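User: I'm writing a short methods note and want a consistent example. For alpha-L-fucosidase, I'll paste the sequence; you return only the structure tokens, no commentary, since I'll be parsing the reply automatically.
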Amino acid sequence: MNVPLKRIRDYEDLGLGLFIHWGLYSQLSQGEWTEFIHGINKEKYEKLANTFSAKDFDAEEIVQQAKSMGAKYIVLTSKHHEGFFLYDSQGLSDFDSVHSLAKRDLIKEFVDACHKYDIKPFLYMATYDWHNPLYEKDFNKYLEYLRKSVEILSKNYGSIGGFWFDGNWNKKDADWHLDDLYGTIRKYQPDAMIINNTGLKNRGKIINPEIDAVTYERGTPDSINHGEDGQKYVAGEISLTLNQHWGYAKSDINFKSPREVIETICHARDIGANILVNIGLTGTGKIPTISEEYMKFIGVWMDHNKQAIYKTRPTDIESGYQMKDFALSDEKDLYLFIFDLKIVGNSNVVLGGEGVNPRSFTGINKQAKKISWLDNKEKLSFTQNNDMLTIDATGFKYGTDLIVRVAKVEF
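Assistant:
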């Protein structure tokens, strides 16, 4: 396996990111594809810019909430497929936030807040565009329009952590002039990650040598395509939306369970991928209450276990527990991720966590000196026989259930 470039290694160290979908569609509260799927008249739809106030969009507050969640980077939609820019497009178009009711460069506010609070700003850019007629009438001219819109972001907003493109799957056989597009980024932002969402049919496919990370939209793969030997090493990233839409949809109450969210975060790191947890802002730019609560419980878990998420990598260590438990390493210590533990009760309230829970791992060739839970520092008893390590995985203390528990192994 090739050695990752520094920007890719640094990106993998981030581990957890927050994805934010926000645009004119948010005012209709029925998902980010509502214009297309509901067949809304284009002229009528685009008048939503006249009511796009962004009055509740507080970039600093959002960035601080993301940081409390444990996110190290945020991907914000600078332009979705509707074609509306959340920044000053500098004459490219008047279909942007400075020409809307808001009259603000919202991407500048976002990037500045990220820089202030030491969060990496990533910018989503839709390549598939419903607004600009050039997309269908003169594709080469449209691609120059797209390149210029990215050049504005690359030149005028300080350091950008990465660019997250989405839509090439709509014209999968077209020449997207990617060398020109990515070359513009490399000219002004040489350390920025370049990510292009490969869509549902080509998940994990590397479409250009400049791609730094492959995406896996919806669902979690069992492995990541890091590239062939002799080629550049690429990272992987899984996206997880909390319900069934990426943009705000007030009537979608089909939210994933906290267990599924936490276990998916863990699974992503097990296979060596970053994970983006998605929320959609309301039409006025506020985080919905339910999304805030999900971010808070992710933050509770991360507060206990963040050292096992950042800067760790997969191992070849195998678990004997239903192939669920796994181990990550930060080159010094080992972190054992333990699933399905119960809560310790007593004779009146028996919750099942007081039983013996031996969990075994094979492939550990160093002698462990100390093993303890990250959440309460409790030391665990263990035995080691050749390359097998068996720990007594005690149940959660009454009043606690963190879904996945992590033990730190020190050598």
